[in-house]
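hey m, so remember when u said the tokens were messed up on ur end? i reran from scratch. heres the input so u can diff it against urs
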Amino acid sequence: MQTIINISNLSKTYESGHHALKAIDLDVYDGEILALLGPNGAGKTTLISIICGIVAGSEGSVKVAGHDILEDYRITRDLIGLVPQELTLGAFDTVWNTVNFSRGLFGKKPNPTYLEQLLKDLSLYDKKNNELRELSGGMKRRVLIAKALSHEPRILFLDEPTAGVDVELRKDMWQLVRRLHESGVTIILTTHYIEEAEEIADRVGIISGGELLLVDDKQNLMRDLGKKQLVLELKQAVEKLPDSLQQYDLEISDDGLQLTYTYSTGGERTGITALLQALHEAGLLLKDLKTSQSSLEEIFVKLVKTKT
């Protein structure tokens, strides 16, 4: 796949001595949705801010569509739309003027048709003549998204876009993200709602303590690092396992009616067939069985805990 953002050996150290980023290497592919996950203070916002030219890195380089963000700042910034965490809007401007002005800042020709459709997509069109001070927090968040998209960028950064907003906005936003993705826009998002990343992202990157722990295809990540569990419901309770079943490291429920077998999703053999045969030979009769798989959140928590 073609790379649209190339980050090489990027580090950021503040005057206080805090190492916000440590030798980050990352390629973002053209047209993908990349979710960056990490706890508060992990370095996600710092990374986005450097790419967007808001914060200067201490070491390393960043290129956007082949252009260095320092040498070709105007070119790279024109390619990027940013939805920040904080609500940074004037109080007395109207929705329409705010979005239209933002488009003009990038030197784009007026395009009322595009802006009208953008406001409709974000359920803002009926508020276009309202002053921003009249809007709710959720509506102001929609305006930030409209501003970020006003100049039709090829890359969209969403920094905690759904933090503290209502369910309706989250639904509208992800529908818009999917449409943008289908049109070829590259999307990089940070989120605390890991289930959203699990649903919408193509790849997932996990950051902790300023280090990029891994970046991988979402399905590969869940296959290689995830685990599955097979829960076996017995017809009769057992107090302890027969010696023939000790090798399977089964967990017995408190009431003795369930056995839980954990296995890796990345292994060639799960051992389930042999386990079921061993259960039969041990005289344990099954009433039911079911499987479950690790969620992305469980994988994330495990990786971050291992790092810290």
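this time it looks ok to me. The chain has a mean pLDDT of 85. if urs says something different then somethings off w ur setup not the seq
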